[in-house]
Amino acid sequence: MNKRVNVSLSSCQKTESGAEEIKVSASGTYSLINGRHFVKYDEETDDEKINKVLLKFDEESFEMTKSGEVTSTLIFKQGLKTAGSYKTPYGVFLIETDTSKTDVRLGKKNIFINLEYKLFIDSEFVADCKIYIELIIVK
After folding, report:
1. Which homologous superfamily does the CATH classification assign to the domain defined by 3-137?
2. 3-state secondary structure of 45
3. What Cα–Cα distance (Å) separates residue 56 from each residue in 26, 53, 90?
4. Are residues 50 and 41 in contact, defined by beta-carbon separation less than 8 angstroms?
5. Structural domain boundaries of the chain?
6. What would the pLDDT profile of 74-111 be if each residue is shown by its tens digit?
7. pLDDT tens for residues 109-138?
8. What gap in Å lies between CA 92 and CA 89, rounded to an integer?
9. pTM of the predicted structure, to 2 decimals
């Protein structure tokens, strides 16, 4: 059964040249299937195009898939380095995440997700990253 959900996501990437923060707010749908949580929402890009986002997670792992102008899959498992991909109009890149923290807290009407990881592109370190997501289940 799908429920309405409000998604609030903030991310921070720290590189040698400084920090970049991104904030996203969107409405979407939420489902719980066989112990795994699924959230779907649309994300508007800087050039006003739409990416479809799918979050899949449980208490041990988290996966974010985007499709649209940018297509990517990022997988987070605490203590593991996992591989994914990032396809842009400019080419396809191998993305790796070395996750130090995957914290999922379930409330009655809220879900909090806190991720901390090192980001590698084509096997080269790019940034220390944090993602914080709050899901508010509307109905």
Report:
1. Calycin beta-barrel core domain (2.40.128.20)
2. coil
3. 16, 10, 27
4. no
5. 3-137
6. 999 999 999 998 998 888 999 999 999 999 999 989 99
7. 999 999 999 999 999 999 999 999 999 999
8. 8
9. 0.91
